[in-house]
Amino acid sequence: MLVAPLVLPLFFMLAACDSLWRKEPEKAPLARVGENYLYLEDVEGLTGAELSPGDSAAFVSNLITTWAVRQLLFSRAQINLPEEKIREFESLVSDYRAELYTRAYKEALVAQMEDTLVGAEDLEEFYESEKDNFRLQEKILQLRFIELPRQFLNREEVTERLKRFREEDLKFLDSVGVQFKKLHFNDSLWVPVSRVIREIKPLTYDNEAEYLKKDHFFELEDSTGVYLSRVVDVMDAGEMAPQSYIEPTIRQVLLNRRKMKYLKSLETDLINEALGQKELEIYEKE
User: Fold this and answer.
1) What distance in Å separates the CA atoms of residue 18 and residue 59, rounded to the nearest whole number?
2) Is this structure's pTM higher than 0.90?
């Protein structure tokens, strides 16, 4: 009778331990090839919610077959391919794995690089030193243009205001701009002729020289709309590109140079640190 009070607490302790150490439910296997398993959770995210139960089952069955064939072919290849070919593939796999890891790590380090601002002085200095290498590959233009619907009623006033383009004209055009099919008012921005031809459909490479001239206003029309444009300035292919036009390119070049310099410094520091900590040893050949 004296034993009973001790038995019940021990029973509850064992029950509690069982709940604490109970294993997670085992994954549900769908197929096995040798020691490799395909589990239900491996394919759950691949079946779309829009599939019917029948289509979903067929889709999973096809996945299983594809997976099994690949596993079986891989197994047979490891047995039947020449050893030198297997060693070659293993080396390639190892190199590719290392490349993926190191590339991701370098990108993470570069993302933390603080020196990512390119100032106006840096841009101008690079442009002045390299501008002979920046020749235009095609004509570029500064212009403003509007595409109107063919049935637009106030066409004359819009044309006059686009030509004159004073502050009050710009305010008016902005106020009615919702009625335009297209508009471009930033006439300080350089635009390549290929882009202008895409936007103004009646223009072609055959007739663009007639219309795309400095200080020239033109009006064109086709079955879809009316195109009004004032060309402010033009630079031809072969001329030295203006700094503002190639500034994005210069900025990227400077950032890439900083990136390369940063990574080179990183590699040097990595080698020196590993040598100092005896993590790396380089043996001299006799």
Assistant:
1) 40
2) no
